[in-house]
Amino acid sequence: MSDSESKERTFPRPLTDTEKRVVAAGRAAERETLEAFLDYLRAAVIGRASGVSETDARRRLVPSKTTLAGMLKHLAVVERSWFQHYLLGREKAELGIDFETPEDDPTWDLTDDDTLDTLIADYERACAESRAAAADLPLEQSFTHPQIGGLSLRWIYVHMIEETGRHAGHADILREQIDGTSGF
């Protein structure tokens, strides 16, 4: 497809700002591309969880603990774990991360105080904190993970794209089961 053809391409609906940023990242530098895709997936998760009832957000439609509400809570902790704890070295207790292994992971467990609005707001805060944590660091910024060893900020971005993308797919399926809507 030539440059003139790509400029004329139309989409079935107007693109969101986040989607426009991903499209523009097609010719961007590595960091801008990584950030655009991660933000697109973050927005996809929020978009799939938005607009459902509190009951539906908590409803378990699969055998695991996976719910739309639980996914938001889980992803907020994952954001803080990678960007705040591992990258910046903040203590887990300071971040409210009170488990050590995936086997005792309570991040999908909901309390009575967890509402869809508070979970979305907390996830958005965690994402903003992640952006701020990484903003002034080079992609080569390294740190040591106790089980994996040496890693970089670039690795965190790629891992978070994978993690968030996987859960965005889960959210898509759950939302389709809840009310039949699909897509972002």
Radius of gyration, whole Å: 18 Å
Mean pLDDT: 90
User: Which percent band covers the strand fraction?
Assistant: under 5%
Largest sheet: 2 strands, antiparallel
Form type: globular
Second rung of CATH, namely the architecture: Up-down Bundle
- SSE run: HHHHHHHEEH
- Taking strands numbered 1, 2, ... along the chain, how are they ordered across the largest sheet? 1-2
Helix content: 55-70%
Under CATH, the homologous superfamily reads dinb family like domain
What is the number of E strands? 2
Q: Note poorly predicted spans.
A: none
Q: Enter the CATH topology name.
A: Four Helix Bundle (Hemerythrin (Met), subunit A)
Structural class: mainly alpha
- Top-tier CATH class: Mainly Alpha
Q: What is the domain total for the residues?
A: 1
With helices defined by DSSP (H or I, 4 residues minimum), what is the helix count? Answer: 8
Amino-to-carboxy terminus distance:
25 Å
Short description:
The chain is mainly alpha-helical.
Plain-language structure description:
This protein is mostly helical and 184 residues long. It has one domain (15-179): dinb family like domain (Four Helix Bundle (Hemerythrin (Met), subunit A)). Helices cover 60% and strands 4% of the residues. It has 8 helices and 2 strands; from the N terminus they run H-H-H-H-H-H-H-E-E-H. It has helices at residues 3-8, 17-24, 30-49, 54-58, 68-87, 92-95, 116-135, 153-179; strands at residues 142-145, 149-152. Strands 1-2 form a two-stranded antiparallel sheet. A hairpin with a 3-residue loop joins strand 1 (142-145) and strand 2 (149-152). Helix 5 (68-87) packs antiparallel against helix 8. The chain is globular and about 45 Å long. The mean pLDDT is 90.
